[in-house]
Amino acid sequence: MNILVTYASMTGTAEFVSEELHDQLEGMGLSSTLLDMGDLDIEQIKAFDKVIICSSSYGAGDVPSNGAKFYKALTEAQLDLSSIDFAVCGIGDGSYVHTFCGAAKKFQAALQQAKANEFSEALFHDCRKDDEPEVKAVEWVTDIFAGCPT
Ligand SMILES: Cc1cc2nc3c(=O)[nH]c(=O)nc-3n(C[C@H](O)[C@H](O)[C@H](O)COP(=O)(O)O)c2cc1C
After folding, report:
1. Which atom of ligand 1 is nearest to the CA of 92?
2. Given the CA of residue 17, which atom of ligand 1 is nearest to it?
3. What is the pLDDT of residues 47-101, one digit of tens each?
4. N or C: which end of the chain has fewer CB within 10 A?
């Protein structure tokens, strides 16, 4: 299985979480590729069996700047991503009551709109309640891929 972990991150938290996800997947014997979303072209995601989108939020639930180009491509084109399996890992802060994990939810909605298949329930992590998002994220990804053939 060929997994892509890609991150949209402003100050490095979602990037760090993604590195931990990637390391965990590799440790489980799975093939994982880690990419900055700023370096990711929309067509590239079709080469992967599973795509994990990890994003923090800025402004009022906005996508971090390194994810803007990818998000624009995701929403502007009439895409058919029905061949894509994805899961979303949102890193946010619950004090942003109305826009908690807003960017991750935007990615989720855009992928659903493009008919991609959400293969796991999203993780929306609240860093206000728990400042170790990488621990929860690693548990989340381990549960998802436990027992998967390598
Ligand atoms: C100016 C600013 C705006 C933010 N807006 C939101 C928001 O709308 N929703 C949310 O859940 N978190 C919001 N956050 C919290 C960040 O997403 C959170 O701190 C996250 O861990 C940052 O991850 P990063 O380092 O990967 O960018 C905001 C943080 C800042 C500094």
Report:
1. 11
2. 26
3. 999 999 999 999 999 999 999 999 999 998 788 999 999 999 999 999 999 999 9
4. C
Tens of pLDDT, residues 100-146: 999 999 999 999 999 999 999 999 999 999 999 999 999 999 999 99
Tell me, in angstroms, the distance from the centre of ligand 1 to residue 29's CA.
32
Domains of the chain: 2-145 (3.40.50.360)
Residues near ligand 1 (Cβ within 6 A): 9-15, 56-61, 64, 91-93, 96, 99-102, 127
Q: How many whole angstroms from 30 Cα to the centroid of ligand 1?
A: 30
Average pLDDT over residues 12-19: 98
Specify the ligand 1 atom closest to the Cα of 60: 8
Q: Is the pLDDT of residue 150 over 80?
A: no
